[in-house]
Amino acid sequence: MSKGGGGSGSSTVTQEIDPDVKAGYLTNLDYARDVSNNMGAREFAGFNPQYNSGENQIMAAAQGGQGMQNVDAAANLTRAGAGYAPQQIGFDQGMVDSYMNPYTDAVINTGLSDLEKSRQGAVQQMGQRATAAKAFGGSRQGVAEALTNQQYGTQAGNMIANLRSQGYTQALNAAQQQQSANQAAGMQGAQFRMGAAQQLGQMGQAQTAGQYQGGQAMMGLGQARQGQEQQRMDAQRNLNLERLGLMQGALGLRPANLGGSTTEPMYQNTGANMMGGALAGYRMFGHSPWGAAGGALLSLL
Q1: What is the pTM of this model?
Q2: CA angle 164, 171, 84 (to 5 degrees)
Q3: Are 204 and 74 in contact (CB under 8 A)?
Q4: Quick one: how far is CA 254 from the chain centroid?
Q5: Alpha carbons 268 and 4: distance in angstroms, whole number
Q6: Which of 129, 135, 182, 194 could tie 81 with a disulfide, CB 3.0–4.6 Å?
Q7: Can you give the pLDDT at residue 34?
């Protein structure tokens, strides 16, 4: 029966990094802390004059620009044209009177004068015949003159009636033709105004669209310049971060630690060591007991 004993110990291993690398790392750490503490909020580029000009142009066009005014005017003309009522053709005494031939009375008077001369000549001839027949002033002469006067009176009346009727008919036809012409001109004018209103509306829409496109183009230019300004502001804000990145990259990998020491325990089993030494001595010295004893003693050293 045998007893074994055990013991323990410790060893200290110290690891250090290059002092220059450590100093550089600490310098970067201080710089990063300063950058973080001094970094302000991100700034954004505002709208520039080009963008504002385009926006104002679009707003002006939408809120009653020249194009919209033309569209409104076209709408008013269209409403007026749609409500047009053509002139009705009918009897208009005033218009007929205005077309009566002003020389009708003069023609009538001339005709009556001619008839009167003829009547007087006929009556004179009858008187001469009655005188030659020694019957002047008789009843037969009176009857003949009365019939002659009646005949000439009838002719005068017919002439006057025909001239008056002819003049009235001509005046009536002229008045009706004038009414038809007025109606046609009114309808033609209404159609012309409707066409003009349509063209004006189309022109107003084209003007508004052009103003929109121009405003959008201005806004696009403004946004492009705004983007460049934003990049400049971001670059200025991130300059220190870029510098820190370059400095950190120059150091290579970040050190695992900044140096120090570690202690690791070391354990020994005396009995196991003696048994192992005895077995080795026994074999080494030809299975001799003295070799086993010597190996056990050597294991304690």
Answers
A1: 0.40
A2: 155
A3: yes
A4: 58
A5: 11
A6: 194
A7: 82
Closest CA to 92 of 185, 191, 183, 160: 183
| Domain assignments of the chain as residue spans, ordered by start | 49-237
Nearest to 218 by CA among 49, 45, 46: 49
Residue 87: DSSP 8-state: P
Indicate the SS3 state at residue 89: coil
DSSP line for 241-270: HHHHHHHHHHT-SPPS-S-EEEEEEEEEEH
Taking alpha carbons only, the member of 263, 298, 271 closest to residue 284 is 298
DSSP states of 37-70 as a string?
A: HH--PPP-----HHHHHHHHHHHHHHTT-HHHHH
Number of residues written out for the chain: 301
CA dihedral 108, 111, 117, 119 (to 10 degrees): -90
Residue 296 contacts residue 278 (beta carbons within 8 Å): yes
Cα–Cα distance for residue pair 115/108, rounded to 1 Å: 10
pLDDT tens, position by position, 232-274? 988 888 888 887 777 777 666 455 455 555 555 554 555 656 6
Q: What is the model's pLDDT at position 253? A: 47
Q: Which amino acid is at 55?
A: E
The H or E element spanning position 10 is strand 6-15
pLDDT at residue 285, rounded to an integer: 60
Question: What is the residue whose two structure tokens read 């005033």?
Answer: 94
> Quick one: how far is CA 195 from the chain centroid?
25
Question: What is the 8-class DSSP label of residue 238?
Answer: T
Q: What residue type is 198 in one-letter code?
A: Q
In this prediction, residue 262 carries a pLDDT of 55
CA–CA separation, 6 and 2 (whole Å):
14
Average pLDDT along the chain, 301 residues, taken 10 residues at a time: 45 66 79 80 84 86 80 81 69 77 80 79 73 64 73 81 84 84 79 82 84 87 89 87 74 52 54 63 61 59 59
